[in-house]
Amino acid sequence: MSRPLRFLVTIFALLCSLLPLRHAQSAPALERGAAITDPLALRELDRGRLGLSRMLVPARPADAPLTDGQLFALPSMAPVRTALDGEFDRYTQRHNADLPNETIGVGTSFDFQLFDRALLYSPDTRFVLAGIVNRMDRAYLSEANCGEIRLIYRLTRTDAPAAGDAVSPRLPMTLNLVLRAKDHNAIDGKGAALTCAEIARRWLAAGDWPLTGAALAEKLTSEGGPLDLVGPENIDRIETNLQIAHAPKSPIRDFRTDYLLKVFDYDARTRAFEEAPLENQIDRERILTDNNLRRDFKAWLLEPAHFSELDRGTILIPKQYLSTRAIASTPIGFSPSDLQPAFGLVQEEGAAADPVFTKTDVVAALEGAAKRGIGPQNIRSVVGFERRLNDITCAGCHQTRGIGGFHFPGVDWMAANPSNSTVVPGSPHFFGDQIRRRNILTSMRDGEWPDYSRGFSSRPQLRGSSELTGTEYDDGWGAHCYSQRANAADNDRSFESWTCAKGLACQVMSDASRMGMCFVGSR
Known about the structure:
- This protein is α+β, with helices and mostly antiparallel strands and 523 residues long.
- 30% of the residues lie in helices and 17% in strands.
């Protein structure tokens, strides 16, 4: 990474922590009605039936938090521990093979500093409820379940004293307990069938409540509240995000941090969380080396209906093309890199000599869609196709406008002063997507057919709203942008709308892609 890019990435990181506070002080919270981020309310919910202990072991007393030593001793979590242990071993082995001259291990004396696995299984750590996120915008995957509700827990030390606002006992790992928004045959308190419209109404209404702390927690879980009917019976899967290793800047490399992403589906038959493929996490290595898999994947993705779903961001790639692990390396900058999950799949300069998709393939797919009267929303070029392949994957999305490798690091209510502890519970991508998510909730509530499409991870869909105008989420200082050429015909149509607000200019980070960030015009 060049010195100017390191400088601008640092500035962008500062923007991630400062500008959301400025927005929150002058306008309603972007996540209103679509997420619960009140620190004191989350503390009460964690101490009640939404704590991880009660969700996984309902009979357990609410006042008995589940330590990680106890958590990973549960029969239901045995496959999770086995899989995570295997991933640590695999990561270390691959590092030793790829970078034999750089040491790896636990502690600051190593070039690559591994996460200390002993902390993950310790009696002195536990997962603390750090946020609740409504993902009913994903109902296109299972309309009967109305999408998902996510309880996000952050790994936290319980033996570390709170020594002030600057000290946090949190560790770099989240556990996402994914719930069906509506369980099978769910009914409300009056015996009526629960509908998606009713669930959406409850969430949106909660966004207008002038409550905080225990009062908010009580109303959220009371009869008719959005969390009233959320319980262990809704559990669908667990998703984990762990900072597996960190490499500080050294004479031979820039700093780098790797995040391990895993998914475990709940199997009602075995009553355990079993390792599963990550949604849309393309298994690049297998596809590039298995000719049959390459041929089948190419044919499947270029089929007009699937190509359209890819464009809209609603695609669900079959499991045979997916991986059960993902390493999201950050930062990756703005140029194509083999750290990106789709690198080498599409014909581009610097990519593999024998790509799966040639420029001719993509152009033909676009022309075929046009003949069918299907106008693209996002993919209007070969580069747009390649970017979409990257950002539909788990790793690619987490590499884009995240806080490190997280999109929701969560609220830290265990700090000495919870009200000031975490200014930004979510990443710029998280906050930028709230307009789209709330628009979908509104459509559900009103009985209208939702538009489930989504834009690229770098730039949010505005859905006619001006709420993000001038912010770092859209076109303000620090936003991702595309540098326009003088001749409009020379601009990439997939990104021609990625401009900067008045007074700002797009500072190019990659001459190859012309992608950059919005900064003051005189810079």
